[in-house]
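tool_call: predict_structure(chain=1)
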Amino acid sequence: MHKVVPIQHENPWIAGEKIHARAVNGPFARWRWAFVWLTQIAFYGVPWLSWNARQAALFDLEGKRFYLFGAVLFPQDLIYLAALLVISALLLFFATAVVGRVWCGFACPQTVYTSIFMWIENNFEGSHQNRKRLDTVGWGPEKLLRRGGKHLAWALFGLWTGFTFVGYFTAIRPLAADVLSLSVGPWTTFWILFYGLLTYLNAGLVREKVCLHMCPYGRFQGALMDERTLNVAYDHRRGEPRRGRVAEDHRKASDGHCIDCTLCVQVCPTGIDIRQGLQAACIGCGLCIDACDDVMRKVQAPKGLIRMASLHELGGAASKQRAFLQRVLRTRVGVYASLLSLAIAATITAFAHRPEVRMNIIRDRSIMTRQVEQGAVENVYTLQLMNASDHTRTVVVDVAPSNLVALRTPITARLGPAQATTLTATVRMPAAEAAQHAGEVVHIRFLVTTPQQAGTAEVNESSTFLVPR
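tool_result:
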């Protein structure tokens, strides 16, 4: 019988090994940390900002109000959330078509928090070699202290993240006071622990498996890219055949520049070998470029053995200048850019012109229509007025056409910031006009004006007036 030899996988994530990424320094690593700082300063800092004596960014689900600096959004404004999602998708498509998985490598929350947790791990357990050593040795004071300290720091950071996330939905200053006094409600406690645990698991324990097995983006990115899309790529023409770690005087003329040091694999957060070509597991972080450029500098070879390049460029089909123009001036890039510009312009225009005063009209179903003294007819309506601004508004409600109908009692309402109120409006049609339109459904309009802007209707909503036979 033939002996069965198990296949030895070069990629640790295929073989099921734990990945201990090696730390590296370089332009791409610095850019990654710049995005970590930028995104986390915004995430952790924005809830603490104040705007007109209230929290600048607060999504009050219980009160059905979304506060975003000077804007107040009601559930009717969810169309802007849909527009924001469309813009985000188009921006992702555009960026992917031009520079590949730049989102995954630099700004994705999974990447950002994994970088933070790996930094914590590196400070507690040391370099990747020390971490591998700790995996093999038994439990003792050193391992307990290093591993225990790391997991404690991870847990505290996760709880801080969960607290901040909940602070976007519950006013963060009162929430902080409740946390310090241990008087947080059960549901708030649940969500803080839930998001804290999720951060701890995703960034600390699961890590690259989210990118490899859970995130669908790496699977359909091929549909967004072509041969002119920039990717982290290995130049096979220059690197092969690999010469290994041999002295310069023993090098053959046919040897490539790759010395097979495997540093590009050691620094990769997902543990892949970029020399095997473009792979779905590559998140485009560029850390292998930093590692390879450092090696090329030491062996006195040109940088760029691994670099951001398109398949078209690697094939030698165009110069760098021409490749840049071909990369930008492409049909799919133009389509994505046009759709993105149109979506942004439409959203900004619609948001800038959105009415600050809103009104919903509900007919009184219990009293559809009624006749009153001297043959006049009345219909009753419920008006829901909303102030979608952060300052007090005084409004006047009227009804048109004025030659047919009028309000039985004038309506003036004072609306506080982000306040909604419900009013009852009784609309009357005189007897002469009621006799003329007997049995008809008359179209009317409710107008909302402000005393400061007399004659200009901020809200103009249609309804119907029923006239009995």
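agent: The longest strand covers residues 377-387. Proceeding to next step.
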